[in-house]
Specification:
180 residues; alpha+beta; elongated
Length: 180
């Protein structure tokens, strides 16, 4: 019974390594295909502790596009002195489309003569679009990472794949040794 438990543990470790590797590779693919690289400056730097006592750092970065981005990173103590950073920002075609539609709506409202009720409905629709744009912008801001984190994903994926292969080989060798 003890040997089966050890075998099961090796199989679980193998599976966890390959699942972790797939996560890091998928994340790298997302940023490679959907993100643009921006240079920025760290405006504020704050040290935080979570419930378990782990230390993380929240950086506020003013990017070259004029936007403020908030990034939480565990190894960002060095950015207290080094303020120049490179960030990866997911592109937002939907955000640009929403702004264009909203501008067109405002122009149409000025051209057309509407009664008070219709004008109020159009203003409420415009406010709803603005709220959606802000929530989309906030969600997009949560996906911003430092380019340093992007490079670390490659290393982590390699290490997880390497250890996954070792655990898989140990499992196969263990099976061969058991049945011989």
């Amino acid at each position: 019974m003890e040997r089966e438990a050890e075998m099961l543990l090796l199989l679980i470790l193998t599976a966890l390594c390959f699942i972790g590797m797939a996560y890091h590779l998928k994340r790298r693919k997302f940023y490679r295909e959907n993100a643009k690289e921006l240079h920025g400056e760290v405006v504020s730097w704050e040290k935080k502790r979570d419930i378990r006592g782990n230390v993380s750092y929240e950086l506020e970065v003013l990017a070259e596009d004029g936007e403020h981005y908030y990034i939480t990173f565990y190894h960002a103590a060095k950015y207290r002195r080094k303020t120049d950073v490179v960030i990866l920002v997911p592109e937002a075609e939907e955000l640009d489309t929403m702004q264009t539609i909203q501008e067109q709506l405002r122009e149409k409202m000025q051209e057309i003569e509407l009664d008070e009720k219709q004008r109020e409905e159009m203003l409420q629709m415009g406010e709803k679009w603005e709220e959606n744009r802000r929530s989309f912008q906030a969600a997009r801001s949560k996906l911003v990472i430092l380019s340093e984190q992007y490079r670390a994903d490659k290393r982590d994926a390699f290490l997880l794949g390497f250890f996954g292969c070792i655990f898989a080989a140990l499992t196969v060798l263990w099976c061969i040794a058991e049945w011989m």
